[in-house]
Amino acid sequence: MPFLFSGSMPLRRKILLSNLLIVLLALVIFMVSIQRIVFNQTLERTTASSQQEVKLVKQSMETVFQSVQNFTKFVLINQDTQKLLSSDTGTGNDVAALKSIYNTLAAMLVTEPNIDSVIIESLSGNLYYTSNLTGVTRESLGIYPKAEIDAARGGAVWADSLTPAFLSGMKHKNMISVGRVIKSMEKGTPLGYIYVNIDERTLARLYHNEQNPESATLVINRYGRIVSANEATRVNQPVPEESLTNWVKSVSQGTRTQEVDGDRYLVSMQSLAPYDWKVVQLVTISELTYGYWKIALLLAGFGLISILSAVLLSILFARRLTRPLSQLSEVIVEVGSGNLERRAAADSEDEVGRLGATFNEMVERIQGLMVQVETEERTKRMLELRLLYSQIKPHFLYNTLDTIRAMAVMSGAKDISKMLKALGEFYRISLSNGQELITVAQEQKHLESYLYIQQIRFPKLNYRIWIEPGLESCLVPTMLLQPLVENAIHHGIRGMADGGWCEITCEAETTNGQRRLCFTVCDNGKGMSEEQQQMIWSGHDSAERYSFGLRNIQDRIRLRFGGAYGISLTSEPGQGVEVKLRLPLLLQTNEQEEGTVRL
């Protein structure tokens, strides 16, 4: 459920959907559990009931078969039957014996209603049968298994799925029959055969269930054919499912679920010994679940009521729970927009209330930090400006004034005018009308004014200023190069016989795909050792006079532009000093008058 945790969905809707999903999941689990419990209980009860019913059918059929066998014994020992079959030569039968045997056969039908008809066959081929039969011939008796009957030597042999050619009650019927050999009571020799027929429909009445017409009861022989069934169309047909046939042949009794002709059935089975038959009852699973619709409707109604209740309660709870969070969110948005005077409601003791109180404390601390940062920024600006002004050395001013005074005595007013102009230009650019950034062209003019004055003091001083074309309009902080040139003159080349040489260049370079401005100030003075260079950056007192200007410039650059920019110094004794000053390449814009620059 990733959509529940997406950032675009409101919290109130997330809570509502979460509650609905929880209720729905609980209802589904509850309904499925109840359904499975009810189904399993019903299946267990139906299985036990089906087994009991099959067992009763089995016992009823065994009782019927045993009763029919007993009646066959009665015929076997009947004196009239013995006498008639013993003297049967095909002609001249005893009329009294004939009448007696027919009376006996009729009595069997009256006494045992499960018997449909009886046939007695003498060895000579004479036939004696009950009056309800017609069309009985010796050929029609070929359906009876005489070989098995002879092999039984007087024992009962049951034959199933018989469809005789003769009629019973003027109808063709499916018969289940028992046959015996009739033996002489005196000699023990065979006298003939007796066949007792049972109408298959008579057996079907034993297990026909009008209250459950969907269930099927089958009597299956050892060959997998249906001997009897509550549906007459199934008789003499094979079992419709091979797997069911295999199961019926492999076990003596049991219960299982089985798919037959596309429907699912609960199958119960009992063996019908000693006839090698099986009594099978099939109950459709759909019949077992017929009552589930009521349960399902009841559960659906319960679920619908629960869902509606959950929706209403979720809306109320979600609104009540998320209102403080919504208010806090509005406050956070306003504070983020710059309104630091806004405060969140923190009148509760729960997590939301504590969060609001903590947020208010955070906003107050932010306000305090902003005031502190603003104050520190003003202080830094003031210190920076003071440091800038401190670069105007008093001794330089005094020496310049002494030089002007000497020139006033020694020469004409033209040189004095030039020097005063250079001095005025120097101070004008140094102060820069309070601006922090000036163009490279202005910085160049500032250096030229400074070097002109220094060249008057030191006539042998030589210098060169070169600016890469196109960089004149770039912006740099004021008073960056003059201290470097001053260090080069006073600590490097002052006192040299030829006056020394100082070169100032400006060019653009590219590092890591970013363009930078690089100033180089080099001289051919006495240079510095490695130890002296380390002392400059360590702030040692012995190097304070030389290092103060360098460290001041380094601090100003890194304060404004970061640690990626600043001064790098290389020097060897007697080889002069080379100082590289790297700055971001800032281009002047049309809004320069308003102090706006762009990278």
Automatic annotation (TrEMBL):
InterPro entries, per the entry: Bact_2-comp_sensor_kinase, dCache_1, HAMP_dom, HATPase_C_sf, HATPase_dom, Sig_transdc_His_kin_internal
Gene3D superfamilies in the record: 6.10.340.10, Histidine kinase-like ATPase, C-terminal domain (3.30.565.10), PAS domain (3.30.450.20)
UniProt keyword list: Cell membrane, Kinase, Membrane, Phosphoprotein, Transferase, Transmembrane, Transmembrane helix
Enzyme Commission code(s) on record: 2.7.13.3
Keyword Methyltransferase: no
PANTHER family: SENSOR HISTIDINE KINASE YPDA
Protein name (database record): Two-component system sensor histidine kinase YesM
UniProt source species: Paenibacillus silagei
